[in-house]
């Protein structure tokens, strides 16, 4: 696995588009998030359908066609330097095959930011565009609006990525050791759901796989991990970084499962790395070459996440 194309960093005055490819967006949080972006001296613009709600499927932010159009138009707009997802939930998978990937490739590399359900887009941008992306807080998310650590780490990644080449969260080793590879991953349930879909990765060979999830029972996490193992996705993986498991089982129940399913890979595994659905979540670049030190819970990027 090789590193992917890194987009350019942002500069003051850059235009960033906020879109809603997944669940419905609370207007007050969207406005708060836009205010944060303006405070960073950015020019944020919200997609026309960002506050829509699907007329029948209330868990979606508008129709599939409208959500896809907002993302496509923002990405292909030459005035837009970055696309920030407003929130997760569910729905990103439904828009992937409605996007014009040739037009998006022609638009050139830009920054994509999001996490949780946006995992499906991170995977698609990697496999269809060959583009590095940022797994980080979303513009209308509680963490982005209210948590200083989450805000500042994302801001540094966007504007001064050389200052956050070392991502240290105070994590610990589930399996000790060091490993080098290309970062990838996201929300565990979405990675399992992507298996067998068009352009899905055949494996994470050569990669440092980042995993987290939210609100899942232990047996369901077991099912997802077992599915990744049985499908061969974990063959050749170099290391694993475990983020937050907010709303899942407590550590006393969760740790034995993670050790059982991942300990046999024979690679370093770091836990409590501090990305995902936790408060103060760190921004993790996907598609960049890095070294994992599981003993210190540190990820060191070979190059800044953005050019």
Query: Which regions contain 5 or more consecutive residues with pLDDT less than 50?
Result: none
Q: In DSSP terms, counting alpha (H) and pi (I) runs of 4 or more, how many helices?
A: 10
> Strand portion, in percent?
15-25%
Kindly report how far apart the N and C termini lie.
20 Å
How many DSSP-defined strands? 14
Largest sheet: 8 strands, mixed
Radius of gyration over C-alpha positions, nearest whole angstrom:
18 Å
Q: What does the overall shape look like?
A: globular
Question: What does this protein look like?
Answer:
An eight-stranded mixed β-sheet has the order 6-14-13-8-9-10-11-7. A six-stranded mixed β-sheet has the order 2-1-3-4-5-12, sandwiched between helices. The two termini are 20 Å apart. It is globular, with a radius of gyration of 18 Å. The protein contains ten helices and 14 strands. With 307 residues, the protein is α/β, with parallel strands linked by helices.
Furnish the topology, listing elements before pairings.
Layout: E1 15-19, H1 27-39, E2 43-46, H2 64-76, E3 82-85, H3 92-96, H4 101-106, E4 111-114, H5 119-129, E5 133-135, H6 142-146, H7 148-159, E6 166-168, E7 172-175, E8 178-187, H8 188-194, E9 207-214, H9 218-231, E10 239-246, H10 251-262, E11 269-271, E12 284-286, E13 289-293, E14 298-301
Parallel strand pairs: 1-2, 1-3, 3-4, 4-5, 8-9, 9-10, 10-11
Antiparallel strand pairs: 5-12, 6-14, 7-11, 8-13, 13-14
Helix pairs in contact: 8-9, 9-10
